Amino acid sequence: MKLKTYQLVGIDVAMHLLRPGAKWEITNSYFSRWDDPRPCPSWQEVMDTVEKIKAFEDSINTILLPEQEAKFKAQLDQIEQANNS
After folding, report:
1. Residue 15 domain-assigned?
2. What local confidence, expressed as pLDDT, does residue 48 receive?
3. Predicted local distance difference test score (pLDDT) of residue 1
4. C-beta of residue 7 within 8 angstroms of C-beta of residue 34
5. Distances (CA, A) of 81 to 2, 5, 32, 73, 85
């Protein structure tokens, strides 16, 4: 099983790449505040950027220490248990 934790993925990183320095807030996938003269990106643009960030991180051959693997596996197990509850 390949364990991967994304370090760069997040709406905030995607937004910084799309509109550096913009002031914004998101509520339920909707921009509830947009204080920037540039056009607000669509939610699809943001999600496409997140996928590009993930693809970039997936392209890097990350080597984890055994204790890191155990920690990440435990976190994944907790998430899976929560999703099954």
Report:
1. yes
2. 97
3. 47
4. no
5. 19, 18, 32, 12, 6
For residue 6, tell me if it sits in a domain. no
Q: Token pair for residue 19? A: 């509109």
- The mean pLDDT of 56-84, rounded to a whole number, is 87
What values do phi and psi take at 63, rounded to 5? -115, 120
Q: Is residue 4 part of a domain?
A: no
Query: In which residue are the tokens 């899976």 written?
Result: 80
Assess if residue 42 is contained within a domain: yes
Question: What's the domain count of the chain?
Answer: 1
Q: Is the dihedral angle over the CA atoms 44, 47, 49, 52 positive or is it negative?
A: negative
Looking at 1-5, 23-27, 33-37, 79-83, which range is the least confident one? 1-5
The whole domain housing 45 covers 11-84
DSSP state of 40: P
